[in-house]
Design brief:
Elements (H helix, E strand, L loop, with lengths): L5 H10 L3 E5 L3 H14 L3 E5 L1 H7 L2 H14 L6 E8 L2 H9 L4 E4 L6 H17 L3 E6 L3 E4 L2 E3 L6 H8 L5 E4 L4 E2 L10 H10 L4 E3 L7 H9 L2 E6 L1 H17 L6 H6 L2 H15 L1 H7 L1
Parallel strand pairs: 1-2, 1-11, 2-3, 3-4, 4-5, 5-8, 6-9, 10-11
Antiparallel strand pairs: 6-7
Bound molecules: 1,3-dihydroxyacetonephosphate.
Length: 285
């Protein structure tokens, strides 16, 4: 069964670790992430962008695919199926009606009042169905589904205002970008801490790819409870697939070609969750 992210994120906030949000692109991505997280016995959020939804066919197909994998693979960990960067009320409603357990409404391109209005509309609908809601203020920069944007840092006042809509988690843009960083990320940890100390809801860090691990640990200590990873798994998968094709130019079975990136995806997840959730390492030792 799919769950919303409230329980997993509130526990993470209390015990100061982060739950990973991994974007999925296809059946293999979902399968590898679920298998690895089950092996580690940790909750996971599967993020689906609107571009990935289009690629895979639609929200209903994705919900059935993920629920099918949960059943067939005997997945018992909490799994949250989350719309990533929903661009409108209609898109969030479509995901909710198809059975997603969580949505992000990203109205950060609008002025604060409009962002609040659209976010509130999503919160009212989502909560009536038991679905959790994440919102964004300021603007996370970089490329998402090939759409480029600049960084606009969130202010504490904007965070307080948007939290009044009743959202369950907030992604305040504080310098992170989607995709590969040009140079060192410049995150505003002081403001992150201030927002965390002011609001009671969990905070989300977008653009998790390429943030040095000491910065990730610092972000978690400043209140981040959910970290979004997309590009990093794609890059590690691509590297191994390229190598496989170079070494095996005559193998055309897509299961072998796509599957040649499985081990590196799982190894990268392992590496990341040891950083996101050090408590977990100690429980393994
Ligand atoms: P990256 O692609 O930089 O990992 O960002 C993912 C993300 O924030 C999805 O919302």
């Amino acid at each position: 069964m799919l769950v919303n992210f409230n329980e997993m994120l509130n526990l993470a906030k209390k015990d100061k670790y982060a739950v990973p949000h991994f974007n999925i692109n296809n059946l293999e991505w979902a399968k590898y992430v679920l298998e690895k997280m089950q092996e580690e016995n940790l909750p996971v959020i599967l993020g689906v962008s609107e571009g990935a939804k289009k690629y895979m066919g639609g929200f209903y197909t994705i919900r059935c695919m993920v629920e099918g994998l949960i059943k067939d693979l005997n997945i018992t960990i909490p799994v949250c199926l989350h719309l990533d960067h929903g661009s409108s009320f209609e898109s969030c409603k479509e995901a909710i009606d198809a059975g997603f357990s969580s949505v992000m409404i990203d109205a950060s391109k609008y002025d604060l009042e409009t962002n609040k209005k659209i976010t509130k509309e999503v919160v009212d609908y989502a909560h009536s169905k038991g679905v959790s809601v994440e919102a964004e203020v300021g603007h996370v920069g970089g490329a998402e589904d090939n759409v480029y944007g600049d960084v606009f840092r969130a202010t504490l006042e904007d965070c307080i205002e948007i939290s009044k809509t009743g959202i369950d988690a907030l992604a305040p843009a504080l310098g992170s970008v989607h995709g590969i960083y040009k140079g060192e990320p410049n995150l505003d940890f002081d403001r992150m801490k201030q927002i965390d100390e002011t609001l009671s809801i969990p905070l989300v860090l977008h653009g998790g790819t390429g943030i040095p691990y000491d910065m990730i640990k610092k972000a978690i200590s400043c209140g981040i409870s959910k970290i979004n990873i997309n590009t990093e798994l794609q890059v590690t998968w691509h590297k191994d697939v390229l190598e496989f094709i170079k070494e095996n130019p005559n193998i055309y079975d897509p299961r072998k070609v796509i599957g040649s990136g499985e081990v590196s995806i799982k190894n990268k997840i392992n590496e990341l969750i040891d950083i996101f959730n050090p408590n977990h390492i100690s429980s393994k030792n």
